[in-house]
Amino acid sequence: MSEEKRDTKTFEGALARLEEIVKLLESGNAPLDGSLALFEEGTALVKQCNSQLDNAEQKIKILTKKQDGSYEAEDFGTDKE
């Protein structure tokens, strides 16, 4: 396992830790108990990353120009058709 401590509270840190976990599990060198612990840590990090991505998506707004020349902010991904 890496000696470097990652800040898994950030999206980037959690993603980097997930990459480490995948490499460790793919190597097949971890004992069963260790593999299960890594798997559990990985699933928790995936949930955290998904939550952070969902939160970021909710914050993204698109500015659209109205006919009168002013701008209006609307949620990203909404269809107005």
Give the overall silhouette. rod-shaped
**Structural class determined from secondary elements:** alpha+beta
Number of DSSP-assigned strands: 2
Give the biggest beta sheet. 2 strands, antiparallel
Describe this structure in words.
The chain is of the alpha+beta class and 81 residues long. It has one domain. It has helices at 11-27, 32-59, and strands at residues 61-65, 71-75. Strands 1-2 form a two-stranded antiparallel sheet. A hairpin with a 5-residue loop joins β1 and β2 (71-75).
Question: Which terms summarize this structure?
Answer:
single chain; 81 residues; alpha+beta; rod-shaped
Q: What is the strand and helix layout of this fold?
A:
Blueprint lengths: L10 H17 L4 H28 L1 E5 L5 E5 L6
Antiparallel strand pairs: 1-2
Helix pairs in contact: 1-2
Brief write-up:
The protein is of the alpha+beta class and 81 residues long.
